[in-house]
Input
Amino acid sequence: MIEAEFISALRQLPLHRGAAGLADDAALLGTHVVTTDTLVEGVHFLSDDPPGDVAWKLVAVNLSDLAGKGAIPEGVLLNYPLSGDAWDRAFLAGLHASLAAMDCPLLGGDTVSLPPGAPRVLTMTAFGRDAAAPLRSGARAGDVLWVTGTIGDAGAGLAVARAGDCTGEGPMALLAAYRRPQPRLSEGRRLAPVARAMMDVSDGLLIDARRMAAASGLAVTIALDAVPLSPAYRAYSGDVMAAVTAGDDYQLLCALPPDQRPTGLATRIGSFAAGTGLHLTRAGVTVALPRDLGYEHRA
Amino acid sequence: MIEAEFISALRQLPLHRGAAGLADDAALLGTHVVTTDTLVEGVHFLSDDPPGDVAWKLVAVNLSDLAGKGAIPEGVLLNYPLSGDAWDRAFLAGLHASLAAMDCPLLGGDTVSLPPGAPRVLTMTAFGRDAAAPLRSGARAGDVLWVTGTIGDAGAGLAVARAGDCTGEGPMALLAAYRRPQPRLSEGRRLAPVARAMMDVSDGLLIDARRMAAASGLAVTIALDAVPLSPAYRAYSGDVMAAVTAGDDYQLLCALPPDQRPTGLATRIGSFAAGTGLHLTRAGVTVALPRDLGYEHRA
Output
């Protein structure tokens, strides 16, 4: 099964009312927002990524989902495979650094052993409070699509890591975007009260924007020339189509009514209209969709 | 690192007040009890265990921790590695059956892909409410140690599964205890209000009883001849030392004041006193501890 089929099948099970039909990145449990993400060695991180960076990323991807709800992190659970002294210690150091940086305490977890040679599989579950919690399904026709930060840096950082060539300030910045992503918690707090729909960009700008449009029953059009690229990314490749289809940005994507202009906090990149699907333009002219819009898990 | 070292190191991180110093199987988040457990193929289940039974066990081990708190299950999160159509479908059927049997809805989760050939790693996080929540650290000198159900069946069931010989009613019952454990939710609800300490037995009766005693700053003595064994277990081997050191029982262990006698609900197997450590007797005579008291995760 691919991920979408599996999630469809899960919808046949008894669902909690806070599950929101499994259509969102986070669930509601009383006054808490709950989210969980798993990272797999060889899939979500490389075997030679520094263990401290893996810890950072595990925390960041989870707290990014809380940021997408405008929530304040309250605590995390860690499911950890014991990996040998050196790896474990470096992981713990990165975990400490990331939890301290994001002001989030540890609530509990579970440790296991893996069979020798098995790829590491790490899970974190994060709890947030005071969520303004706009769902991804709340966009309306006429709403404007905004995105925080810049897009594509982490994808380029992955290429830098794979090539093993990270000399220079630009490639180092891209590598940092891949290895130590910064969840947009404060931006999420400020955008959530005015957003009609919000989510974090984890699998790629195009695929995630299409998901927001589909959940809202709308079409979305993105102006590729409006997508914010960093100076480091422009120097590295500047390929906007690569940027909008790469994963791991952990920026926030939100639909705002046209009278809301969070300048300085986000960049306007598109708009919602009646209809279906994702549409791209460049200099006002329609552009064909790339074959892969982003990252989807397959069995 | 071994599990205990890793958990010690985690205690140096910023901890949530509901983490109870990471000394318990469950944490408190507002009015909810939270627990999480990971199952690893080749460690916690066998590669040829039926996928539906793996699903059942994943739900059961998590809800058993809620039972240990006397809580009512409210929902679960599932972190699932896509495993191919047949495995996924059989897993979903077992998940549906177990959640329905234990009256617990799905709240959310995450699906991932694993590299080819990687052992499956499955995580579930469970939420409960209305916990009476006695910690494992609350036993007092003079308290009596009680256990629900019978001990050792799942351990013998694992041996039956490994031998591939499950003909006959007895071996089938042992196999069922291993593959489809029943969390003691209703027993937990009834025992929690009168228990001074309570926990589920997951790694083995002896190691878990010693953990309760250590957390309570006491010594515990267990009368081996009082440990309840099932007719199927007596017919299979009857070895009490094997039973009390085997894992996966998912019964409840609790410390009760001497005037509480939950006859019919649990069996009296020992007592707490000032001092430290675990002590065993048989026919009133002290017996040496076995080398391994139960299951501990090692890197």
